[in-house]
Amino acid sequence: MGDGSRRISGLATLQDAGPEQIAFVANLSYLKSLNNTRAGAVLLHPEHASECPVDHLELDNPYLGYAHLSRLFDPFLARPTGGIHPTAVVAEDARLGVGVEIGPQAVVESGVELGDEVVIGPGCVVGVNSRIGARSRLHPNVTVCHGVTIGERAILHSNCVIGGDGFGFAHDGKRWHKIAQLGGVVLGDDVEVGSCSSIDRGALDDTIIGNDVKIDSQVQIAHNVHIGDHSALAGCVGIAGSTRVGSNCMLGGGVGLAGHLTICDGVQVTGMSLVTNSIHEPGVYSSGTGAMQNAQWRKNAVRFKQLDDIARRLAKLEKRNQEG
Amino acid sequence: MGDGSRRISGLATLQDAGPEQIAFVANLSYLKSLNNTRAGAVLLHPEHASECPVDHLELDNPYLGYAHLSRLFDPFLARPTGGIHPTAVVAEDARLGVGVEIGPQAVVESGVELGDEVVIGPGCVVGVNSRIGARSRLHPNVTVCHGVTIGERAILHSNCVIGGDGFGFAHDGKRWHKIAQLGGVVLGDDVEVGSCSSIDRGALDDTIIGNDVKIDSQVQIAHNVHIGDHSALAGCVGIAGSTRVGSNCMLGGGVGLAGHLTICDGVQVTGMSLVTNSIHEPGVYSSGTGAMQNAQWRKNAVRFKQLDDIARRLAKLEKRNQEG
Amino acid sequence: MGDGSRRISGLATLQDAGPEQIAFVANLSYLKSLNNTRAGAVLLHPEHASECPVDHLELDNPYLGYAHLSRLFDPFLARPTGGIHPTAVVAEDARLGVGVEIGPQAVVESGVELGDEVVIGPGCVVGVNSRIGARSRLHPNVTVCHGVTIGERAILHSNCVIGGDGFGFAHDGKRWHKIAQLGGVVLGDDVEVGSCSSIDRGALDDTIIGNDVKIDSQVQIAHNVHIGDHSALAGCVGIAGSTRVGSNCMLGGGVGLAGHLTICDGVQVTGMSLVTNSIHEPGVYSSGTGAMQNAQWRKNAVRFKQLDDIARRLAKLEKRNQEG
């Protein structure tokens, strides 16, 4: 609704947007800013159209509209490809698709295969025999170890590591003996991995990350983990070895999953929860307790150590009262 | 008090210091080592002067005195600047202040501005249009992405990442659609960031870290977080998107803050606490329970799942007793 | 037991192994796959020999046998050394043992000493005066800061950092003053450090990691921590400053140890536990509570805040019942 000839130069929040910017209403908590917005136009759901003082575009899912629009302003998309920088070290037998860019100081080792328009950022290392699908982008200083397979349109953020060794040792009663980690890592299409995250290679079989899996920063995924398609893992998540997470799961920040578990499709785990048993029903799961004032917390936390005793004493009292 | 001509070659603890070293008493738990110290001199509070068997310097805040003194022995301060290493790749249009050092294999991209005496360590990458203030130092293999602004005297430790994408996706009911992260990161003056930490760029607006904010290793700061001046974040802290932390806050190791919260000035959160609600009163906050022997813990932890039931049964019993 | 002339080309799980592969039974949960295995041979304990349909090798510790065997297939062991890559920057005064390999884009600074057959991966930086023992391997993009000592046969995975500054500041009532971190880091022999982990240098004395200590990915070890021989730390562990962990300890994923603690030999801490007091008895320790369905959790978690009140009310009721 409005002036179709208006020119737009960018995106901004409802509060900050000026007449040359588009804003959006994706969340009811922002509705209060709608009345006063100075935005050039607003993306919103039809039910809020009547409250909008400026031009607007009605969408069933305005947040999705914002996502599509945002990518028009992505500085990486507008950029011409940089080609192979003269300081990059690229093995003679590496196979490079059309329009590949390899940044300064990057290293592409023997047997590597890079699909069309792959971008390898400055300082990245891609190890022996790894394959990266078309239009994937590695931001600076990423390490992809040997024998890793990455699908198309992956985005790997800076200083993440794909394919470091899993944590496997046998103990002889006195000391540890390393188990060579002979599996690889397979990432599907449209996977994103955040800064400084690590996905370890499998012991014998591969560690497998499905299609459209989104992984935030500071995440640790141990050897032989499987993550199903479309799942999302927030920052600081840690998943121990051989655990299988289904499709369409969402793990909140700092969640920890113990090893050798099975988490079914459609499970959501809230922030900093510890999961030590498999989950067979979709739904929302939680553990822990929220912060309170330290003085109050001290009194309650000390009682946690008496909890079994409290329960037993209560049962005894109940019995006595029933008898009485 | 003592011999002003004594020559000192270094700093050490009260226990280890020899006649050519200075030690300090910053904490009552070290007092017991004072009587037997062989240190050349000791920094201490006037109230402990009488217990000191060697030369000493009385200070109101001896720990602060130690901090000042320690920096005289910092090996980086004594070093002559290395200039621009011939293997560094520096864009022609980058603007470099006086006395800038750029280490081997580093990359400084187009439009970057480096203040006087900035040091860019080996293997670092500074992305397009980023600005770094005077006397800041990047240790090896740091990544500063595009469009990041860093104040003066910052210290960024190895392999940390400033300005990776925030974790933003819209869901269409079936799959994720990336929201381009168009904001930047702004770090104030005197900020320190630990090894392997990540500070993500904002979605539309910037992620903002105030002046004199100290951030330890393995920390994750999500998009659009604000941290107020003089706050300190210990190792493994994770802060979810859009949360605002006040000034003079201290977050213990492993603390997690949920997204979209407001934490007022002067809040201290103890280690590994989970904060899911805003905090409007300064003070100390905690959650969780400390470790105990596993056998004892099992008995209590299982009761946690019965806690609501226990509370209801207790209330019923109380009522019955009052009636009886 | 079986055909000693059989040729084996690799290792696989009981389920996946074909006639040219060896499998193993290290864990009772895999026993059910033994009957149907198509493996060329199986490593197993004598007590399972009768259930094995194919050739087998009886071992007291078949998992240890698997570990030894796995290393025959390690792709790094078969590889010829690469020598010093022409793009590596190696200080003139660095002392290199026999058979040292330094990868492309790596930096070895002044005063560094590398033992025989050390491998420095692509993009690694080894800082001034650090020493690395014979046969140690640094995977790509590792940072070893200045003045670090690493023993023999160390394995450092990609993007980990050894010797970043510890987190030390003095407060003057208004702002922070950095304490120069003048200690180093000493790693014993046979230490492994996972991807993106960080071990900080000491304030005055060194941070010390014993022999045969195994450290997983995303781990943070703060300044002046000591870890005893043969201890193992799983992913995402965080240890605060000056804490001493004994020998033969095992810390589960995400465990947090507060600062200035002493943990005796032979302690095992289960995943995501918080340890705030020293531990003087060997054994297994735990904290926290496991995840449950969110609706159930909400009801119980809110009661945690009433726990002290519940305990007091219970005691009162008990007293009243005894009196009555």
TrEMBL record, chains A, B, C:
Gene name of this polypeptide: lpxD
Catalysed reactions, as listed in the record: a UDP-3-O-[(3R)-3-hydroxyacyl]-alpha-D-glucosamine + a (3R)-hydroxyacyl-[ACP] = a UDP-2-N,3-O-bis[(3R)-3-hydroxyacyl]-alpha-D-glucosamine + holo-[ACP] + H(+)
Cited PANTHER family: UDP-3-O-ACYLGLUCOSAMINE N-ACYLTRANSFERASE, UDP-3-O-ACYLGLUCOSAMINE N-ACYLTRANSFERASE 1, MITOCHONDRIAL-RELATED
Subunit structure: Homotrimer.
PROSITE patterns, alphabetized: HEXAPEP_TRANSFERASES
Gene Ontology CC annotations of this record: membrane
Domain UDP-3-O-[3-hydroxymyristoyl] glucosamine N-acyltransferase non-repeat region: 6-72
Source organism of this protein record: Halomonas chromatireducens
Family under the similarity heading: Belongs to the transferase hexapeptide repeat family. LpxD subfamily.
CDD domains with a match to the protein in the record: LbH_LpxD
Pathway(s) served: Bacterial outer membrane biogenesis; LPS lipid A biosynthesis
BP terms from Gene Ontology: lipid A biosynthetic process
Molecular function in Gene Ontology: N-acyltransferase activity; UDP-3-O-[(3R)-3-hydroxyacyl]-glucosamine N-acyltransferase activity
Pfam assignment, any one: Hexapep
Alphabetized UniProt keyword annotations: Acyltransferase, Lipid A biosynthesis, Lipid biosynthesis, Lipid metabolism, Repeat, Transferase
Residues annotated as catalytic: H223 (proton acceptor)
EC number: 2.3.1.191
Function: Catalyzes the N-acylation of UDP-3-O-acylglucosamine using 3-hydroxyacyl-ACP as the acyl donor. Is involved in the biosynthesis of lipid A, a phosphorylated glycolipid that anchors the lipopolysaccharide to the outer membrane of the cell.
Database matches in InterPro entries: Hexapep (IPR001451), Hexapep_transf_CS (IPR018357), LpxD (IPR007691), Trimer_LpxA-like_sf (IPR011004), UDP_GlcNAc_AcTrfase_non-rep (IPR020573)
Protein name: UDP-3-O-acylglucosamine N-acyltransferase
